[in-house]
Amino acid sequence: MAEANWYVVHTYSGYENKVKVDIEKTIENRSLQDQILEVSVPMQAVVEIKNGVEKAVDKKMFPGYVLIHMVMNDDTWYVVRNTRGVTGFVGPGSKPVPLTESEMENLGFMAAGVVLDFEVGDTVVVVSGAWKDTVGAIKAINESKKTATINVEMFGRETPVELAFTELKKL
Hints:
This protein is an alpha+beta fold. It is about 15% helix and about 40% strand. The protein has 2 domains: about 5-105, Alpha-Beta Plaits; about 125-170, Roll (SH3 type barrels). It is built from 3 helices and 11 strands. β3 and β4 (about 55-60) form a beta hairpin. It is globular and about 55 Å long. The N and C termini lie far apart (about 40 Å).
């Protein structure tokens, strides 16, 4: 089987999340999970100040673009290209060009040689984001998404929160 690469897809501005959801539904309906591995709308946490109130919001890093980790073949090309809101792949002419590993590392999507230093049951502290300084025990780990689920106390109840590995530090 061919190797999976990251490709950039151009979309109508504002349709990035809709395109992501539609492609994920199509993957499930056509059983393409082994060919289209991940669909990503890169987000960046930003603090906005409106009416004197600071608010943490997620902004799209690349408005009008969606990143897709997939094996390029006629089926996957057709599924992505014919998704509503997609205007085409990024590349010369009609030939999609995959991103190199160094380009993905520069975007912050792939860290070279990531070693997971915690496991389910470990106690961790959140080092960034909305849950900064929160302590919790890891309940689940999703290595493909590079996230861990911890329970945090909110309004007197335990609530599961999914956080990126980079936001956690083992105690």
